[in-house]
Structures are given as C-alpha cells and as structure tokens.
Amino acid sequence: MQNVLQFQQAKSNKIQWVTLSAVIIIHLLAVWALFTFSWQNLLAAAITWWVAGSWGIGMGYHRLLTHGGYKTPKWFEYFLTVCGTLGLQSGAITWVTTHRIHHAFTETENDPHTPRDGTFWAHVGWILQGTAQNQTEATMRRYAPDLMKDKFHLFVNKYYYVTPIVVGVILFAIGGWSMVLWGIFLRQVIGWHSTWLVNSATHLWGTRRFETHDDSRNNGLIAALTFGEGWHNNHHANPRSAKHGLAWYEFDVNWLQIKALEKIGLAKKVYAYELEKEKVQAEPLREAA
Ligand SMILES: [Zn+2]
Ligand SMILES: [Zn+2]
C-alpha cells in the first residue's frame, strides 16, 4: 500500500524545476554545438555516445544490473556502472528501481512511464513532472535490494553527476569548449532521446513477435539508435535474456559485445533466449496435440 501511494504521487503534476532547467539548458547547448562542427568533435561525441549509451546504459544499467542477463567480475560491473553515469539518467540504483517497476507493472497505473498516460508523458513528462527519478530509499530497498547492499553502488548512485563533469574537463583539455559542446551536451541530448524513445515509441510503434500482456514493440529504428535496445517486445517477453535481437536481421550491438566479453572471459553465466530452441521444444507438444 505504501508503494502504491508513492507511485500515485509519482504521477503528480508537480514540475521538477531543477531537472527541467537542466534539460532545457543542455538542449540549448546541444544546438550551440551544431555551429562548431569539426571531425575531432564528432569523434569525441561518437566515443562518449558509445561508452555512455551502449556500455553504460544498455549493457550495464539495463542488461547486467536490472535483469542479471550475465555476470561480470565486480570491478568490470563497477566500470560499466560508471560508464552509465556518463549518460546522466540518474544513478544505477535509481534507474534499476524505476525499470524493475516498469517491468512489474507495465501499462498499469503503477508503470512510471506508459504511453497510455500520454506519449509526451512516456517520453520525458515522467522525468520533468514525476518523482520516479528520485526514488525513495524504501522503494529502492524493495526493488533493488541487491544493489543497496553494495557500498560502491550506493556511493556512485549518489554522485552520478560527477562523471559527466570529469569527462567534460578532460574533453576541454583535449579540444576546448567546442569539444565539450559535442562530447557532453549534443551527445547527451541524442542519448537521452534515444533512451526515452524506448519508453515511448517502442510501446507504440513496431511489430510484435510475442503476445505479451503489454504494448511493447520491436522497432528497428530505435534499435539502431540504442545499440539494440529497440527489440523491446522480445525484451518484455524474455526480460532476463541478455540477447534482445532474436532473428538474424535484428541487429543487436549490445548483445554482440556481451558475446565478445564472454569470449575473453569477462562475461559469465550469459543467459540468451533463442528462437530455435523454442521451436525444438514446442515441436513435440504440437505433435502430441
Ligand atoms: Zn518497456
Ligand atoms: Zn528491461
């Protein structure tokens, strides 16, 4: 009951002014970046985009920390977590809590970001108006007890915003202010909208391989923008699977990298849902019927 009350509060119309101001300023700086193009700046943005979006958010926050689709040595788990903080989407414990609630209550009144509450709400409204980005300690204890036990995760969850500042200073030293505009601000805006599209667009547009109890879709365009996170219907059907792209044409960059990590011994206990195995297992049942 306590949590239900908190979720309803999460949908209040109270505007998060600090978040809103930061989001607006970062968008304006991203527009400024467009007037300072150079190939070095583009390269800086591409590298930070990959590190934050793929290693950090997709492989780290999502497939490793939220769903446990594979295991890594602790130091590597922490490395991916710090990469995730560069994506400026709150700390890992907060992110994991919100995302586990999304999976537990998809498309219900307790879902932090369902398009059934409006497309804009699902995209960014829930961050600007809701409180899901500031999960209470009680909610985090309930939904992410595994991470709440870990002192490193607790620390990084609190100071997640330090990483973009440190990386910004490094970029400034290498390429000046214009490289900060590209590697931090423009890259940040592209990274945000790509992730937000997973919450909005892939619950609205695309194909459905699995008859899940939610509106999740497979969307190739969003998958291309998010290193494979757009195969969202596959993902809702098999949340723990570290492999989201199930057919040969469902390109999944995050999965390819997890496979590579497995080859060099950094990823263990990799769980992958396979369409072929499903077919083989389903065959005798069909014959029996
Ligand atoms: Zn979803
Ligand atoms: Zn998920």
Q: Compute the CA-based radius of gyration.
A: 19 Å
Q: What characteristic shape results from the CA principal axes? A: globular
Strand-residue proportion: under 5%
Number of domains: 1
| Number of strand elements | 0
What is the terminal separation in angstroms?
44 Å
Number of H- or I-type helical stretches: 14
Biggest sheet, open or closed, and with what strands and sense? none
Determine the fraction of residues in helical runs and give it as a percent range. Answer: 55-70%
Distinct ligands, ions and cofactors found in the model: zinc ion
Characterise this structure:
The protein is mainly α. It has one domain. The protein contains 14 helices and no strands. Helix 2 (17-33) crosses helix 10 (162-199), helix 3 crosses helix 5 and helix 3 packs across helix 10 (162-199). The relative contact order is 0.14. The structure holds zinc ion (2 copies). Residues 102, 106, 203, 216, 232, 236 line the site of one zinc ion (ZN).
